[in-house]
Amino acid sequence: MSSEASKKYIVHPGGKVTGKVRVPGDKSISHRSIMLGSLAEGTTEVTGFLEGEDALATLAVFRGMGVDIIGPDKGKVTIHGVGMHGLKAPETALNLGNSGTSMRLLSGLLAGQGFDVTMTGDKSLSSRPMKRVTDPLALMGAKIDTTDGKPPLILHKTSSLKAIHYDLPMASAQVKSCLLLAGLYAEGKTSVTEPAPTRDHTERMLQGMGYQVEKEGSTVSLVGGGKLTATNIDVPADISSATFFMVAAAIAPGSDITLEHVGVNPTRIGVINILREMGANITLTNEKVTGGEPVADIRIQYAPLKGIRIPEDQVPLAIDEFPALFIAAACAEGQTVLTGAEELRVKESDRIQVMADGLTTLGIDAKSTEDGIVINGGVIGSGEVDSHSDHRIAMSFAIAGLQAGGSIQINDCANVATSFPGFVDLANKVGLQIEEIDG
Known about the structure:
Blueprint: E1 8-11, E2 18-21, H1 27-39, E3 43-47, H2 53-64, E4 68-73, E5 76-80, E6 94-95, H3 100-111, E7 117-120, H4 131-139, E8 143-147, E9 150-156, E10 161-162, E11 165-167, H5 173-183, E12 186-187, E13 189-193, H6 201-208, E14 214-216, E15 219-223, E16 232-234, H7 239-251, E17 256-263, H8 270-277, E18 281-290, E19 293-301, H9 322-331, E20 335-338, H10 351-361, E21 365-369, E22 372-376, E23 383-386, H11 391-400, E24 408-411, H12 423-430, E25 434-437
Parallel strand pairs: 2-17, 3-16, 6-7, 10-12, 11-13, 23-24
Antiparallel strand pairs: 1-24, 1-25, 3-5, 4-5, 7-9, 8-9, 13-15, 14-15, 17-19, 18-19, 20-22, 21-22
């Protein structure tokens, strides 16, 4: 991975996006399909699996714990589940690469196993905060060592976990999922109350595998000691990846693109709601439910955007989509204000500051605040921006080229493969002009 860290994009200005495309599978659901499929009894067949580095890291660690997994082959994975107590101690540390989702969810899942295990990651992951999961897990009786609250994580075997009720201090699907997965191995009922709705893929997949999950208001709970039954999982296209093309069409006159079979889980559609409020022309068709997850085809036709004050209740529903939404704001008429988004400062990078710096470099008036950003729409110029190894930052500045006055060079783009393998090829196919170079 580090040998590729010098990949750069040169984005040439102008163009529009047209056509029908299917972006890669949903990263969140791909991770969970491997985790829960491994713990299930029977064989789980997965289609549409995201063959990006993050999801492949999850797959590799379960192979390392003795699970027989065939694939992936063109998005198809076959998992021969070992049951709730069938994982074996790995021979070496589990390396999760760049994937914070994997590490945070696995902290819960592995806290209740009968063996010691160490989890490591790359430089970016090793700097990310883990106390948000290790602190509540400690309340359940887990014994986890960290380095000042950061990876590597060393989980020591515990005889049993005890169920707790936990009020999440921040809206985080990763922390909620971590505690529910630990709750599978705890005595009694584990319950989590969240301050705002977050993505519920874990709860949906647990129920799809026959595990009872209760939801009452903003509290979700389950009782430990049950079992998971294998099922077939069709992973929808990732709305986070679709977002780049949604914003591209929203900012480039003459654009008309349809994104097929995209997951439109109600906990993930903040980006659609926010773009519509800015004036985007978005139509959903072919709506259906597959494997408990709603999907639809999303068509976006160009329409002029206006700046808005982003409703705070939409922030957790669009948390990964904000780098791209900041590009929409830069191209909108007027001012866009985001508040209540402190979570963006602890993603793969400090996404608020990195985007503000990049937009400023390109001539846009963008000022970061403690919990958000203020962007005044304007004319995107040309220049050189640094993605800080953050895949979503790199792809966001790539689509900015559609409205740029000159070429944009984006540095440090290797990590795009973690969530969107084939991004440059697909982007160029629909009308962008991106060169990928080593150096």
